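Here is an idea for our session: we take a single protein and study its fold together. To get us started, please write out a protein record for me. Once you have written the record down, we can walk along the chain together.
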Amino acid sequence: MTNFPINHEAQWPDQEGKGFHIHALGHVTSQGQLWLQVTTSTNSWGLGFTSGASAQLTSADGTIIWESGLHTAGVDAKSVFWGRSIRTDAYSNEWVPSDKLSQAVGLSFLLGHTPHDRWAEDWKKIDDGVNQAGKSLADVLALAAKVMLAVKVL
C-alpha cells in the first residue's frame, strides 16, 4: 500500500555549464491531485532559456503509469534588466485517474530546456516603448499648444 503524499524533488543538471537552473518540487495526494512547483533561473548575462517540466507516476516495477502535461516557463538573460531571470511557477490543476493512482508508488520529474536568444524580442519591446512615449509626448505638446491658442497665450 502506498503512503501518501508521494513526494519528489529534483534539480536539472546544466551539463553545458551555461548557468541554467531548473528545480522541481512536488507531490501527489491520496485523492490524486498533483502539485508541482518549478523554479527556472539563469546566471547567464547573454542567453535566456525556456524550461519544461512534467511529472511521472511509476508503479512498483518502475513502469511509468501516468504523466502530467508539459509545463513550460521562460526566463530572460540577467542583462535584460526589465525582464526576469528567475521565476517560480506552481501547478495544481491536474488529477491522476483513480485506476492509475491505485498502482502508484513513485513520483519522478522529466526536466529539460531550450536555449532561446530573445534579443530581437527585447529590442522590439524597447522600440515599442520609445515609440509610444514619443507619441504620448507629441500628443501632450499638441494639446498644450491647442490650450495656449484657446486662451490666447501664443
The first strand starts at residue 6 and ends at 12.
